[in-house]
Every structure is written in structure tokens, then in C-alpha cells.
Amino acid sequence: MKIDLVTYGEGTDPDIPNLRIFRGPRLAWLGRVKTGPSLLKLFLDVFVAARTVGRLLRNRYDFVDAHEEAVFFCRFLKPIFRFKLIYDMHSSLPQQLTNFDFTDSRIIRYIFEKLENSSINAADAVITICPDIANYATQIITDPAKHFLIENSIFEPVKLKVDDEPSEGQPSSTGTFELPTDRFCFVYAGTLETYQGIDLLVRSFANVVRQQPRAFLLVVGGTDAQVEHYRSLARAEGLEEHCHFTGTVPQRQAHQYMQSASTLLSPRTAGTNTPLKVYQQLASGIPQVATNIYSHTQVLNDDVAFLADPDPDAFGASMLAAMSDGAAKEKAENAKRLYEREYSRELYVGKLGTLLNALFSDD
């Protein structure tokens, strides 16, 4: 299979066989593309749409996989260029407008809802990535046979065509940090957006340190501004000697930090999509502590993780339990078995194969 990928100008090309990447202009002076909806994304989508039309004029593709809002223009290009369309639905775009406080306009939300509903039913196949989105799409889709729940549960490292360093415009790491070998190390790896619950994590960890001074917290990821914000919070809690923030690091290094952890963390406080790191943490064989919000509990349960209410006392208590509870090892083993049973690479590939077979069953 040969793949053409059309995307934004920001980023570093991965080294994947049979993949060609066509980027829009970098336009670094406009700033970085951030998580969630933004006017910058809408502007850059114009260039992605133009690039897409250019590729469609030059090539006849077996199918087009449209991710997120790209489906809005691909839905209208489909009857013109007569390709099969897969809607890769990682979230509900109307919900994102509210979740990220992008707009309170009912008119804009209505337009997005109509576009999303139309795209779901115009697509030849719809991929949803967690039960919450699957349930949402089920209420809209008129042909359930073309709906496929395929969790983003594989996390193999991606080799880059250039040195594995943060991309242009990304904040650089503060340098490789060695986790202390004589302490119990909690590790969080991911973005530092507000909904990830890093403020909850820092306050919870302050409760942990008061009872277990040997505990140590490593927070991996985040922009310079985000890191400085949470460092200030950690200083206010008296945690300077008990935690470290790395900032953005290469994927390989983040994975090494996670593998060195005593316990992994997912303190998310909002949202309904399952964090992708949850699958990696399931497979790691390392105990994990997570909030008991639906974002997590649609995959996790008390047999495979320490689950806690999203408040400092409860989350801190679960972190302490992970340090001392003999069930931690059993939970980690149960988690690994759950991953192998429900979310492994073999199952992921099988689900994709089922989708493609259905997509071309009439050809």
C-alpha cells in the first residue's frame, strides 16, 4: 500500500516506507498549532484543502481517510472525485467547540453539528476511537454496518527522517534527567493542557510527600509557559526537592521515562475521550493511578488500576496505595492481560482489515 499524507506545515516527517507527505506552508510567525479548535487551524485548513484538491487532480486514490475537520471538505470532494471516504472520528467537533471554550455561538455550533452529521452519513466508513465517541456516532449514523470502533491502542515508536529532537517551534527539553534510583518514582507523560489535571496532580503529590518523603514525581511534556506555571505551583507546595518537569522531550526519551517509573499517572479531570497513554500504560506492566472519570473508566477498572475521585485527598490516597499496596503488582499484571486480550497490535490490525474488507466488498 502507498499512502499520501496531507497535513499542516508544522512538524517533522516520520520515516515510514511508502509514505509521502505533502505539507501546507509553515507560517511559523503565526505561532504553534495548539490542541483543540482555533482560528489558526481553520486558516491552515484552507491550505490543507487546497493541497488535497491538488493531489486528487493528479492521482486516483482507492480511498481517502479524513481526520477530524478535514472530513468537512472531503465530504464535498467525494462526489466530484468519486473516492471512498473514511471518516476518522477522534472526537465530536461540535463538542470540542464547547469543551475548549472556543465559542458560545449557537449558530456556529449548529453549523458544525449539521456538517458533522452530514459527514458521518456521507462517509463510506466511520472509525471511532473509544466507546463514548462510538455511542455518540451511533445516534447519528443511518447505516450501522459502516461504523467501526477501533481504539488508538498501538504506540510503536516512530523513526524520524531527521534527528529525534523536538520539532521546529517546539520548546526543547531541559536536558536528559536521571530518575533517582533510591526513590519511588511517579511519572506523568503527556501534554499539560488544563484538562489533563496537572494542578490536581501537584496538589495530590504534596499530600503524598507529607507521608512518604521518599516519593518523587517526574512530569514529562508541556510548553515552556505551561512548565513554568506548574513549577511555580510545585514551589508553592514546597516540592522543589521532590519533583522535576522536563518540558517537551523526544518520543523515545518520554518512553524511557515511563519504563523507568514505579507507577504511571493519568490525573485527567475533564473530557470523555480515552487518553491514548492509557493503552500504553496498560501494556507496560507498571501500576497506574488514574481519576475515575468516564474518560478512563470506559477502559480501566479497579482490577487493572488504582482509580480515585479527581480531588487531591482521594488521588493522593491512591498514589500512596500504589506505593504500599501489595495489590499493585497484581493490578499491573491484570492490566497487561487486558491489553493483550482487547487492544493488542494484532487485534488493531485485524479491525483495520475488517474495515477495509467491508469498504471494498462490492468491488
Main sheet overview: 6 strands, parallel
Please state the average pLDDT score: 92
Oligomer type = single chain
Top-tier CATH class of the largest domain:
Alpha Beta
* CATH topology call of the largest domain: Rossmann fold
Radius of gyration using CA atoms only: 22 Å
- Binned strand content: 15-25%
The secondary-structure element order is EEHEHEHHEHEEHEHEHEHEHEHHH
Q: Which regions are unreliable across 5 or more consecutive residues at pLDDT < 50?
A: 164-174
Proportion of helical residues: 40-55%
The CATH architecture assignment of the largest domain turns out to be 3-Layer(aba) Sandwich
SS-derived structural category? alpha/beta
How far do the termini sit from each other? 17 Å
Work out the helix count: 13
Topology:
Blueprint (H helix, E strand, L loop, with lengths): L2 E5 L11 E5 L15 H20 L4 E5 L2 H12 L2 E6 L3 H7 L6 H17 L2 E4 L2 H8 L8 E3 L34 E6 L8 H14 L3 E6 L3 H13 L6 E5 L3 H9 L3 E4 L10 H7 L4 E4 L2 H4 L8 E3 L3 H13 L2 H16 L2 H15 L4
Parallel strand pairs: 1-2, 3-4, 4-5, 5-6, 7-8, 7-10, 8-9, 10-11, 11-12
Brief synopsis:
By secondary structure, the protein is α/β, with parallel strands linked by helices.
Give an overview of the whole structure.
Helix content is about 45%, strand content about 15%. It has helices spanning about 40-60, 70-80, 95-100, 105-120, 130-140, 200-210, 225-235, 250-260, 275-285, 295, 310-325, 325-340, 345-360, and strands at about 5, 20-25, 65, 85-90, 125-130, 145-150, 185-190, 215-220, 245, 265, 290, 305-310. The strands form 3 sheets. Strands 9-8-7-10-11-12 form a 6-stranded parallel sheet, sandwiched between helices. Strands 3-4-5-6 form a 4-stranded parallel sheet, with helices on both faces. Helix 9 links the parallel strand 10 (about 265) and strand 11. Residues about 165-175 have low confidence and may be disordered.
